[in-house]
Amino acid sequence: MADLLAYAKSKPMILTFLPDEMDWNHLDRHWVCDVIYTVDQDGLSDMIHDAQAKRNEKLEKSRDLLVAMKPEFV
Hints:
The protein is an all-alpha fold. The chain has one domain (about 1-74). The protein has helices at about 1-10, 10-15, 30-40, 40-60. Helix 3 crosses helix 4 (about 40-60).
């Protein structure tokens, strides 16, 4: 949620659709995502893709899912 709101702060156009910053602690995460996606689809899609990639990397390392391949099979 903090990343979403930080992204919203960087885009003045998105801020026009959000309430004042002092009311942000009461916002619903899904509502904020809907607003940001409606205004800036590409930005939110990139943000989601990056978060998924980071999470997958973390899970691969923590669960030891990385498998070494022989060079001839690559």
